[in-house]
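Data card: per-record layout.
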Amino acid sequence: MRFAALVALALTAATASQANTDSRPPLREVSEIDGPLFSVALAIEISDRCDRIDPRNVKGFFLLNQLNGRARDLGYSKDEIDAYVNSPEEKARMRARGEAYVKSQGLDPENPADLCSLGKSEIARNSQIGALLKEK
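The structure for this 136-residue chain is written out next.
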C-alpha cells in the first residue's frame, strides 16, 4: 500500500513537472477539463446515493471521452491524463469541492435526501450536472 502511494505521488509530481517544462498548467488548472469532470463526479455521487435518480451513463461516457480528446488536443499525454484522473489527491480535491458545492446550496452532503433534492434541482435547471442525471 505504501508503495502504491509513493507511485501515485511520483506520477503526480512527474505530471506537474512535465507540465511546467512544457509551460502547460496542470490539468486541475484547466477549467475546460476540470469543470466538466467535476460535474461528472458530482452526478455520479448523487446517483450513487439517491435511489430515485439514475446516471445517464452514455452521456457521461461521451463527455469523458470528449474531455480526454480535448486534453490530448491541448498536448497532454495519456499518462498525464491518467495520472490526473487516478490521483488520490485529485479525487480528494473533487470530493471536497463537491461537498462545498452541496453546502453552498444549503444542503448536507452526507444526507441522501438532500442529494436527491440537489439532483432534482440540477435536472430541472438542465445544468451540466443535471444533464448527466435522470429521475427514475
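Known properties of this structure: Residues 43 and 70 are 21 Å apart (CA to CA). The radius of gyration is 16 Å.

See the next section for split statistics.
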